[in-house]
Structures are given as structure tokens and as C-alpha cells.
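Bumping my old thread because nobody answered last time. Still need a sequence for this structure:
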């Protein structure tokens, strides 16, 4: 919140004390300052939304639904598939060992050997 206060004071205070300006120039200064504050507030809202999105993505790593069987089924699912598993591995690197073991065991079950 202090950043907003500084922004407001920095933008509005000079506009208030402009001496010898016409009413139109003062109004334009106020409008410019209001647009700048609005843009900064919009940008801050986007920053906060991104922080919340990252928090939710990392929180899914602790979901009790993420069992080995569920991840294995999701990897084979037509809607989730490999893209979902790759996203999970980016968000939850602790699952990488499990997924690599899963790949090795599946390859062995169909008679393939991995290098």
C-alpha cells in the first residue's frame, strides 16, 4: 500500500500546485495522473493474479488424488495425456523419479529395454 500512496502523491501533488495553468491544463494533468494510477493498479492486479496462479499450481503437488495409479491413468487418458504429466513435472519436480520409474516399468512390461 505505501507504493500506491507514493504513486498518488507523486502524480497528484504536482498537478494540484501547478500555478498559472489554465483550467484545461489542470484538468488534463489530473486526467493523466488518474490514468497512470489506474494503469499501475491494473498491473498490480495482474501481478497478484500471477502469484495466486503459481501458488495454486504448486499446491496441487500435495493433492491426495495424485497417487501413482492416478498419474499413470492420467498419462494414458485421451484428455489429460502426456501434456498434463509434463506440466505436473514442471510444477512438482518431486514426481520426476516416479514418472521415470513408470516409463521404465511400462517399457519392461512390453518387452522393451531402455538404454
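Sorry it took so long. Here it is:
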Amino acid at each position: 500500500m505505501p507504493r500506491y500512496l507514493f504513486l498518488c502523491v507523486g502524480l497528484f501533488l504536482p498537478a494540484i500546485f501547478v500555478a498559472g495553468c489554465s483550467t484545461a491544463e489542470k484538468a488534463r494533468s489530473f486526467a493523466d495522473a488518474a490514468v497512470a494510477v489506474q494503469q499501475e493498479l491494473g498491473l498490480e492486479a495482474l501481478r497478484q493474479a500471477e502469484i495466486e496462479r503459481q501458488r495454486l499450481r504448486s499446491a496441487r503437488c500435495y493433492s491426495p488424488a495424485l497417487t501413482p495409479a492416478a498419474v499413470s491413468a492420467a498419462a494414458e487418458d485421451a484428455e489429460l495425456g502426456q501434456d498434463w504429466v509434463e506440466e505436473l513435472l514442471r510444477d512438482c519436480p518431486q514426481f520426476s523419479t516416479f514418472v521415470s520409474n513408470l516409463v521404465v516399468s511400462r517399457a519392461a512390461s512390453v518387452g522393451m529395454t531402455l538404454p
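The CA atoms of residues 68 and 98 lie 8 Å apart. Let me know if any region looks off to you.
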